[in-house]
Design goal:
The complex is a heterodimer of chains A (87) and B (606). Chain A has one domain. Chain A is built from three helices and no strands. In chain A, 70% of the residues lie in helices and 0% in strands. The longest helix of chain A has 31 residues. Chain B has 26 helices and three strands. Chain B is mainly α. Chain B has one domain: Up-down Bundle (Sodium/glucose cotransporter), CATH 1.20.1730. The chains are: A mainly alpha (87), B mainly alpha (606). The interface between A and B is large, with 48 and 54 residues.
Chain lengths: 87, 606
């Protein structure tokens, strides 16, 4: 397999992981709104459902993007596809 | 004062600017103590900030094509993040969102999740690849990737429909704020707003819009956070409201039960007295009050719409590298997060200020005549944003007898909570900044698509630079005027049309963009079918629902993008597979786009 094909395979793998995490926190957990509300897990004392909609998921998305960017940079470096600094 | 080149000095320049703005706020506060009237303070805030933006716009004037369309591709990661955040957060986010949460609670907060989650899609599916492509506009990508003028034209059509729907709402918002702050009639204020928007973008295109948007972000975030922190501390609710309002949220639930929320219903005859556009609290504040599907379908539409709106995507064309584009998406979302995570806190504080009888500011349970005598009530009642009426005739204000406009939650809360007027002036300047920055991005996205993709690429490919830029500017002014004219008619509310814009963009552009990078087999015929078919299906569903058709799967006029995008995906796949695969050159181009290194597909000047 060519270097480029390997690079793309890894890139696609990272995409699936990223989208899986995204799916859980943007769609998955909100299937269980009522269960989250009744849950005894209460971040900072807020009901879990309320907390996730106004801070939890939002914060996770921010971290997720930076994590994704870092991983993708590593993949690009590994196969020698990252940009030169002076670009 | 500043040695070396402009880009290296950015932190210093914007640091000085932020310092200067804070000094201005302090001067206004001193002025207020010395007896400056509320009206003069309001005018100073709006006029001063708008003049600064206009000055930045003038200093960023350019006659270079790549500076006009791409800000010279040298906007550093963090600054592009700020500019995108301002571009993104519109009058709807700033003025209307906290109000929506105030009235609708949990069900409405699907918008918070949707408007942030979409950035994960932007970062992972699209932005880095479109940056590598090197396009000037989103239709530029579609046109080059799929080939042919028809694909390019279809993309321009979708872009124009979505962005134009959006921009009328933003010009409407600038008009609303300018009319309140400057005390002029709305249909004149709309053109004052338009003039300010054009001053920022006309001379310098993307470059000017970039640097004014950074300045506007700084103003709008200061204007949003100061009142939230101040009210929270004043009320004794917590030094850091975001982590400390759990007791207040619980207290609201307690008061809702005490005041009989949901049990006492107003009769239709009573509701007729309430001025149009005002609402009472009818939904619980924190309780899960909607079905999972309603919540999720709205969030999904906003996420896919985020990834398809051209004025956001084109901000990532301005970074120096692919790597910077990716990181820049993270910074954008971080800066957006600062405001979005504060909106529910503002709604909580605002609601408690009004509801809690133990607080000096609480009005529920007081006598009607006492409430009607309060200064701020009279002001906002006159502005048609507040209303009380003694429906049950007991002389006391009940929860179901108090009505407020959605905008009032952000605009009036500082006054209700007893903050000095200087804060209300600041909030007006913030709202103006939010609406102007988004309107700028949108007007530029439309006029760039028309001038670059229609005029230069399709009508007159031999046009000289000077002529191209002249056409671009003329179109900018024309589109601005068209937007303002429609805004002056006041057809729809701000929030409704913003949500529609997301659905339009999602219907026509989401799959053609994503599959352009991720599916090599996608071809021009498929893309055209996907764009036009998706847009047509979405629009048809919207019109049908608006004219009384009950719809299916609980898809409403706010989530019609689901219909449009599914049709778009199916058409695109079926038509692509039924027609010839893209040629070898196109396939090779897609391979090139998938790696960050090497030259951009389209050069700096094209």
């Amino acid at each position: 397999m060519s270097k480029q094909a390997q690079h793309w395979e890894k890139t696609r793998g990272l995409l699936f992981v990223t989208l899986a995490i995204w799916f859980v926190f943007s769609i998955g957990i909100f299937l269980f709104g009522a269960e989250m509300e009744a849950s005894s897990i209460r971040p900072f004392g807020y009901p879990l459902s309320y907390y996730m909609t106004c801070q939890g998921s939002l914060g996770i998305f921010v971290i997720l993007i930076f994590w994704f960017a870092g991983r993708q940079e590593k993949i690009d470096e590994e196969f020698g596809f990252s940009e030169r600094e002076d670009d | 004062m500043f040695k070396g080149n402009f880009i290296n000095n950015l932190p210093k320049i914007y640091g000085t600017y932020t310092g200067g703005f804070i000094v201005f706020i302090i001067l206004m506060a001193i002025g207020e103590q010395a007896g400056m009237s509320a009206k003069v303070i309001g005018i100073c805030f709006v006029a001063f900030t708008v003049l600064i933006y206009a000055l930045i716009g003038y200093l960023s004037r350019t006659i270079q094509v790549d500076a006009y369309y791409l800000a010279g591709r040298q906007v550093p990661t963090v600054f592009n993040g700020m500019a995108t955040a301002a571009d993104w957060m519109s009058g709807a986010s700033f003025v209307a969102m906290a109000g929506g949460i105030y009235f609708k609670g949990y069900g409405y907060m699907a918008l918070l999740v949707g408007w942030t989650g979409g950035y994960v899609l932007v970062a992972s599916l699209l932005a880095p690849y479109l940056r590598k492509f090197g396009c000037y506009t989103v239709p530029d990508f579609i046109g080059t990737r799929y080939g042919g003028n028809l694909a390019r034209l279809s993309a321009v059509i979708v872009l124009t429909v979505a962005s134009f729907t959006y921009v009328t709402a933003q010009i409407n918002a600038t008009g609303t704020i300018a009319s309140v702050a400057l005390d002029i009639p709305f249909n004149i204020a709309v053109y004052v707003g338009l003039a300010s928007i054009l001053m920022c973008s006309m001379l310098g295109g993307m470059r000017a819009v970039t640097w004014t948007q950074v300045a506007q972000y700084i103003v709008l975030i200061i204007a949003y956070l100061i009142p939230v922190f101040w009210i929270s501390n004043k009320m004794g609710a917590g030094v850091f409201p975001h982590l400390m309002l759990a007791d207040e949220v619980a207290r609201i639930a307690e008061l809702e039960a005490q005041f009989g929320l949901g049990e006492i219903k107003n009769s239709a005859a009573d509701l007729k007295q309430v001025p149009k556009g005002l609402a009472g609290i009818t939904k619980a504040h924190s309780e899960v009050n909607t079905t999972p599907w309603k919540f999720i379908s709205l969030a999904v539409c906003m996420m896919a719409g985020t990834a398809s709106l051209p004025h956001v995507m084109m901000r990532y064309f301005t970074t120096p590298s692919v790597k910077a584009a990716r990181r820049s998406v993270g910074w954008s979302l971080f800066f957006i997060f600062l405001l979005y995570s504060s909106a529910p806190m503002l709604a909580t504080l605002s609601k408690l200020s009004l509801m809690d009888p133990n607080l000096a500011t609480g009005i529920i349970g007081k006598s009607i005549s006492e409430v009607q005598a309060i200064d701020w009530y009279q002001n906002w009642n006159q502005a048609n944003l507040m209303f009380v009426s003694d429906f049950n005739g007991n002389g006391t204000l009940e929860l179901n007898e108090f009505f407020m406009g959605g905008k009032a939650v952000v605009l009036a809360t500082p006054e209700i909570a007893g903050l000095p007027y200087v804060i209300s002036g600041l909030v007006a300047a913030g709202g103006m900044a939010a609406a102007m920055s988004t309107a700028d991005g949108l007007v530029l996205a439309i006029s760039n698509a028309l001038s670059h993709d229609i005029y230069y690429k399709m009508i007159n490919p031999k046009a000289e630079t000077a002529k191209r830029l002249l056409i671009a500017r003329v179109l900018l002014v024309l589109i601005g005027f068209a937007g303002a004219t429609i805004a002056a008619l006041e057809i729809q509310g701000i929030l409704g049309s913003v949500i529609w814009a997301f659905d339009f963009a999602m219907s026509g552009l989401f799959f053609p963009l994503v599959l352009g990078v991720w599916w090599k087999r996608a071809n021009a015929q498929g893309a055209v079918a996907g764009m036009l078919g998706g847009l047509a299906a979405g629009t048809a569903y919207l019109i049908a629902v608006r004219s009384g058709y009950p719809g299916f799967l609980d898809i409403t006029q706010l989530t019609f993008g689901i219909v449009g995008s599914v049709v778009s995906l199916v058409l695109m796949v079926v038509v692509s597979l039924a027609t010839k695969a893209p040629d070898a050159a196109t396939q090779k181009m897609v391979d090139e786009v998938r790696v960050p290194s090497g030259k951009a597909i389209l050069g700096r000047q094209h």
